[in-house]
User: Fold these one by one.
Assistant:
Number 1:
Amino acid sequence: METKKIPTSVYAEVTPNPNTVKFVANRVIMPFSRAIEFKTAEEVKNHAPLATQLFNFPFVQSLFFSTNFVSVTKTDAVDWDLLTMQVREFIQEYLLENEWAVVSIPEDDETEAATQQENKEAPKVGHAMPTNEIEEKIVEALDEYIRPAVESDGGAIDFKSFSDGKLEVVLRGSCSGCPSSVVTLKNGIETLMQNMIPQVKEVVAHEH
């Protein structure tokens, strides 16, 4: 009996990073709202069947999954003009047959002790835990004013730390690895934060 296909369409969007293209589905592709990034095939394990298959393409360097899209970052060896349609069709075919692109979060399979230790540190993906009112305001501002724009470009931004007027954030997905977009984003965040939260004097953007 033929398997019933899941109605799905996928389109490609360019991003500020010339090596990254964002492939957007017309439906949710993960059973949770947390964004996940894979730098190597080894990191995927059994968490993301689509990621495992995409890493079989020799030009795929890293993958970033969010609610309804996957950002694919390629190597410099080949141009997206030759790849975009092939990758888009591949992702669409997978999603026609499978409900989820990512089925579990990588941290879920670590031991409880390791998880407890991780909770004391900044999580791999997602904001570090705010420890005071200023940090809470920073996280709220990032989520309301910065994150939507970054996600529309196929990336993510997370709060890392705040100390002595210096705000540190982590850039992932298409934001990472593109010097011009990092500088533009850093300057924009710095201006916004300094206007909204006077205690912020400087923004440092780390690439994941």
Note: The radius of gyration is 18 Å.
Number 2:
Amino acid sequence: MEQTTSYDRTGRTAYIEGCKKMGVVPASYFLRHMHDTNLSMKHHGLGSMGMKPIAMSLMTNTQIVKLDLSDNWLGHHGGLAVCEMLKENCFITFLDLSDNKFGTRMAEHLGKILNSNSTLTHVVLAGNDFDDTAAVSFADVIMNTTKIEHLNLSRNVFGELGGMLLGPAIAENSSLKELDLSWNSLRRKGAIAVAQGIKHNIYMKKISLSWNGFGLDGSVAICDALKNNQTLEEIDLTNNRITAEGAVIIGKGLSVNETLVSIKMGKNPMQSAGCYGICAAILRNPNSIMKELDFSDILVNNDFNDIYKQVQEQCPELKLKHGGMEPPKKPKKPVHPMVKLANYIQKNNLRLVDFFNKFDKDGSMSVTYEEFQQGIEETGIKLSSDEVSQLLLELDSDGDGEINYSELVIGHTGFQEQQDSINTILTATQPRPMTT
């Protein structure tokens, strides 16, 4: 009787033979789960040698749809094995290759396979040291792909030039729904180019630009993008060196935008004033559909709370996150009225007796409360009525309703000695500089 062999849908046979050929021990986890639709092989330490047999197996595997190979130190040769596998496999739709030490050399190979593959819709390439040179290949992918809907290029080293290359590609893309460029070094002209790409893109729903360096110039470009883009729903601008001025500028875009539902701007040096500016812009936009404001790690004040309550009335579904309330400002310690007297005497180079004579019109070496108050007004020393009353009580030590010269001398000298004592204590408690 003729024997028939069933088709190996998992590639198990190819894997075992590949391991023998490469001289590596088969991964028992892979053997147990190669029939799953969702396979996670992250943190398995495969390296290039361990990856090659798996790639051979996946060429014929028809079960796995979602594949996670992150953090396996695949390197250049392991990456090449993945690319060869993707030429044959037409079932995998989700692929995570993050943190695999690919480097710039691998970008060209990945770019070619991503352009030719017709099944991948989700691709994660975070943390692979791709730089501005690699941006050429990924810009080509972004511009030409018609299948990839979610692309993650975060935690790489795209800089100003990289942004200038990626920006025009973003403008032309017709399939991406979500793009992650966070944790790169996009700034200046690169940041502006990316924002201009967002402005002209008509498909993307979500973009993460957090942990870059958009700054003021980038804020101006983001404002322009928000004014013109009619599809973007979520934008993450966390930690982008955006000041209060930059936030107000971005707010001008929000004041006319009718599609954005979430904006994240936490960890920016925009302070409560910047948060206020964003809310004020939303309040000016009757067509805003905003549902999430994220100002994480930014302290806000009561003025912000007041305007946010108004925004909530306009957008009832709006959720807010911020860094808490600013601590109340400590009131300045009032200056003792005796200090003001002492400063006046020193500034005008007067002796204490000369100062007293300004009050003692009759030369009796004693002045009434009324004469003292009148003298204070004539000197122009700025003392409130409470401060004058405090001085009178402190200087009139015998409580007879008059201040004589000796009481002024004793009061002035005693106060000076008290201040000198405080200054001595403060000086003694100051940390001494280190000596080498």
Note: The mean pLDDT is 88.
Number 3:
Amino acid sequence: METTTKKTDFRILSLHRRIEAQRDAILHHALYPKMQSLKEVRVFMEHHIYAVWDFMSLLKTLQRELTSVDTAWVPTEDRASRKLINEIVVAEESDVDLNGEPASHYELYLDAMRQVGAETRPIIRFVQTLQRGYKPKEILRFNIAEVDEDCLDFLKATHAIIKRGKLHEIAAAFTFGREDLIPDMFTALIKKLYKDNPEELSAFVYYLDRHIELDGDEHGPMAIQMMHHLCKEDDQKWLEAEEACVEALEARLKLWDAISGKLG
């Protein structure tokens, strides 16, 4: 048992080393110091909202595969992963807003965009296109919803991981490709702007604080346990998991580069 634990720890350390360069580039990106006024915040949010929505695609895929969502319910094998995914779904879909009313994190973000004066019509049009029955692959291939090209590329990268249908890759992109990618420096800059613009930024500060609060609990260790369950001691699966993480992080880095370029 001790040998297995050490080997598993080595695999996680190896994965972290594999993605270190990409994570470091994101966490120290030139984008963050450019957030000096509400104008820059608006541009950032108009792009980042797609990552907020897109996170749910990974989460819902994991929920479908790791929990029982059929009418005839049966218990799934991995109890810990079931608990993890269901807890995150509740947190993401059924949190509360500034007034204590139920709201998903996507809706919290939309509220924050409206408050700061960011353009919400493109993301709303995108979601409405889905509500009309178009499949994600149709929207992404033909850009029916007229999504910004940089945001579209980001969505395509996530969809490609999901489309391959390898649960360990999806879980890896979810666990390591999306965690803690908003650095403390960014939050500090937003809160500095908030002091002069409380009526425009209170909802965004609340959103950021909720994420810090929710990320600081037991979900991290549970997500690692989920990776152990899905990959076990299969070298090929761990390698594919690493590559999926890199894929997800490079897509985020490309989006950050695009936003930074638009800020000048």
Note: The chain has twelve helices and two strands.
Number 4:
Amino acid sequence: MLSLGPGSACDVCLEPFGTDLKAPCSIPCGHVFCVSCLHNVARPTCPLCRTSFSSWDITKLHIDLESIAAALSVEQMPVPSNTQEHARQLQNRITQVAQSGATELQTTQLTEECKVFLAPLPKTMYTDLRTAYKMLHYMCNVKHLYIEQGRTLNQHLRNITTLTQEVDRLKAGFEALKIEKRRLEEAWQNVSAERDNVASECEKLHEQLDNAEAQMLLVTE
């Protein structure tokens, strides 16, 4: 049976694992999410590493809820005095990213910071920050998907360029063959004409020989 530590939560919705729709499920890449989030992904790819999977690949994990409840009752995480300030800073950074943009690395790091900060806290705390985090997480996924689609499109364009060049090369080769064919046809016509001339000359020579033989016979008689 899988044993989860206190505060173990889904990396997408940040809600603690539990039963029914919040039951943890693993996919082939090894990442674990709740049932609800896996069923609601826009495409069958891991929200973290983008590895593809199918509904047949989802494995529901059984967790020891009693151990988790006991651990939570014994070990209550104290809220740091600067938690409010940390939450405000994260909220401001998310707002700045939304307004001014950021690199993929910066956005990924900020998303990870928000996840680490919010995961051990009750889901009723910092609801605005949680909403902003989910929007940032969704934006990261959309941006990643856009980048992947751009790469795929660029690859298709490169393939089209390569095929176009190959078609042009074949067309040039075809035109060269047509020119060579015409040259050979002209050469054949010239050879045929020359052959006809030679045949005509041979026929004339035969006639002359026949006439010469006839005259010789007359003289000898």
Note: Residues 185 and 191 are 10 Å apart (CA to CA).
